[in-house]
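Figure 2 data, in text form.
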Amino acid sequence: MKTKMVLKLLTAALLVSSFVIVNFPYGGRTVLASPNSQGPNVSSDLQDAISNDPESVVRVIVDTRPAPGSNAYSRLMARIVEMGGIVIRSLNSGKTAAVQIAASAIGELASDNGVKYVSLDRATQATGHLETTTGAAAARNYGTSSTGPIDGYLVGIAILDSGIYAAHHSFTSGRVVASVDFTGEGRTDDPYGHGTHVATIAAGNNHVSSAYTGIAPWAKIINVRVLNSQGVGSISNAVAGIEWCIANKGLYNIRVLNLSLGSTAIDSYVNDPLCQAVRRAFDAGLVVCVAAGNSGKDANGTKVFGAIHSPGIEPSAITVGAANTMGTDSRADDSMTTYSSRGPTRGYYTDTSGVKHYDNLIKPDLIAPGNKIIEGQSPGNQIVTANPSLDANVSTSPYHEMMYMSGTSMATPVVAGAAALLLQRNPTLTPNLVKAILEYTAQPLAGVSNYEQGAGELNIEGAVRLASLVRTDLVGRQLGDTLLTGAAPTASTIIAGYSFSWGGGIIQKWNFIYGSVLITKYQRIYGSGVLLSDGTLLSSGTLLADGTLLSQGTLLSQGVLLSDGTLLANGVLLSDGTLLADGVLLSDGTLLADGTVLSDWAMASSTSSSAAQALAMAALTGDQTSSMPLVPDSHPTN
């Protein structure tokens, strides 16, 4: 069946041309404004940038009040030009704009009645035995005569990253079906080396060796280049890439987005432009998997909480942290990596009284293998050139080369590939149901905080098995209707001889809900137009069953579990500087003082702080594992 599609896929790849965004030069006249006139609708890091250098020119994202594409929006853009600004690109169907303008003009711009919020167009970052240890190999056998083996066949995964070396033989059969560029460099290959590695984790095949098969080896790959040759991009690049995916989802059957990148989380997800774009993709029916970040410890090795990157702070996203498999297939020795960013989310908004309101959501949602992963290497890439020890020396052929990488960037495509497998087995699943199934079947690791592992470590075997039982006629179903086509599955999985129980719970905003009804009865939080986290209503720690979103039989956990076994009381929000039993909660401004987050290697090579270099290098090269070589098992591709 698959060989019949090769010509179609090759034809589609040839028909797609690169979409190039042209960078505009700096310039513009100065408009005077008082230093303190920015107002509450200006992000704090933008206000800091203005205070530090009021004569500078800044790139910002302007969220407006007028209707998309309206005359009022056009008049506002014209006014920006009159103020000496340059409108770089329009976003959000003509309601938001990326703008270059004098810092001194921000106050006047923000005071316009048509402007809802102004934030910096922050830099984004590229933030690595996979089939067996994740359960993907076992899940291959859960297909039907219509689906074939569960290997992601024809499901589109968009990789928003530094480009893809499409000639790599991990992508044979023309599976890179589209390539577009939003960096302005006019190329879609991968001189930096991050995107190719990420794409092969999600969807690499077994051509080079069965040891390096990705999670969904027959998925279609959509290459959306938003990071440049140094692994650096901007929020507006990423937003434009997301919007391209939404517009072209039908053409390439894009069902999953992978964003192994991030930016410093300053704004609440309500105002963060990248989070808003992720929400639009979610609303369009796309599963969006994003990296948690690699800021999980300080220079002394102390655990740091509250360092989840944007858009990992967005509730609709599946935010992924990194696990260490210790080089073994068995799950018995799996642990958290030291560098994986921990929750709670610390985005905030400031009210008119100057009071900050923090989101404080539980993140990440899941963890997945991300330490010392061996996957595809683009030829001559910057990462391996700067650190030759990352070359796995698998082959002398550029088409077969592999490299090591570590980080939440590597864990995220593992989950993106898993989502593709679920959608191949049951194409009717909503993004909320995909997320709920992945969380419910996850393996909680002992002695690890919910703020570190979310619902637990990804379990693809259990997730695909559960997804295969979910009925396909859920549209119009009522709360409490039967969810499955048969009896509830056994809530445990065996991988490499090790048996573990599923966590059996789903993350809410500040707590967990659990109970067998989550998989036996339809919950309205699984539908469209709501978030999976919308179901929890707290009143003195009690779940209020309102008969709208959750059925009777859903239970609320006693609190957020900390790694020392203590519980953080229900509904308690962490204030700035509060200490956790596990470590230290970051205060404002201590994550990255300059507001810039670079790629894993770029951070290590360019930052002036030797401590930051060491931490970035630790994330790139990984935590220590056992002496067993990191070689993933695989099964032959049909």
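Caption note: The chain has a mean pLDDT of 82.
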